[in-house]
Structure prediction request, 371 residues.
Amino acid sequence: MTKNNLHAMAEKIENAERLTKQDAMTLMDSNDILQLGRLADRAKERKTGQQVFFNVNQHINLTNICVSRCKFCAFSRDKNDADAYAMSLDEVLEKARSARHLGITEFHIVSGLHPDLPFEYYLDAISSLKQEMPEVHIQAFTAVEIDYFAKIAKLSKRDVLLKLKDAGLGSLPGGGAEILNHRVREAVCPKKASSNEWLEVMKTAHSLGLKSNATMLFGHIESPEERIDHLLTLRELQDETGGFQSFIPLPFHPQNTELPELKKPTAFESLKTLAISRLVLDNFDHIKAFWIMLGLKVAQLSLLFGVDDLDGTVVEEKITHAAGAETDQSISRDELLSLITEAGRIPVERDTLYNVIRVYNNGGQGVPVET
Ligand code: V47
Prediction:
């Protein structure tokens, strides 16, 4: 596809006109990645100007034991595997306390679909965390987990969400969406929530005032058209509910999965996917780069390709050193600030619901300007 095809579309994007499926497929066919980036950056600028958001969160995975065993997942284990685990409530609280001094504003909790743990375990985990650290927002349980809880507890999705909300749940993460398509799910994750079940949970959550994110696992067996259809499905639900906060495209990592023959998406493919997501999802305010999966280099470049939010564990530099953390598992706040300012953008620390905590508009030198 030549540059001219994109020129024809640039006007549409400049006028903030909604792209059709045909338009989106034209973008997918294009190799003019710089022009795609410029167009996506323009669309980003309209939403959030020069600002790039980040937050300080702690990920907690309650268990890796999972009955679903999706082909793309290297995390899940069977109950009897040597490295299978399920955290006790004490362990959950201990983990939470260990990050208290980092000034975290969010717990991000996702786990396997455990065959035996009752729904009450998850309710207890949320209420204990809330009691221990009431100021920290709890973003927990993918739509797939909510659907599973409804099945094991024999409750409606709505009742599951209401009970979790009562216990202290603040919002839902965007995982488990993979590709919202029957063929793809049958092939790679047949044992978990279907596309419709995933969408139904999100719709219900939004109706109860719970915001959520949405993800897309790309670069495995899905076709370009299935990827675009995934975006269009999310755009349609967002038109209806307005409950999605951010969209996070996740590049597939084949190592230690049941799809080892596949290759990880290239930087080119990832940047193109992020840019197209920004252009098609005109009703999503935020497109987030999960640098832990994209890598820091691609994540930084993505700030010129429509991305306005960087996610991944952020810790103070002294803590990183004290903990001896690997740079690919955590990032110091200063490093994050320089990545953003070097790209010519203004770093903004946010809470989970995108309330601004600090704007670093002094070149990212670490002296915050309160807003
Ligand atoms: O649902 C699993 C994906 C997701 C692999 O909501 C894989 O803010 C790549 O959803 N290669 C979990 N991806 C992570 C997730 C997430 C991450 C960051 C922020 C947010 C948010 C959500 O990871 C799973 C699945 O789609 N995944 N295996 C893999 N081998």
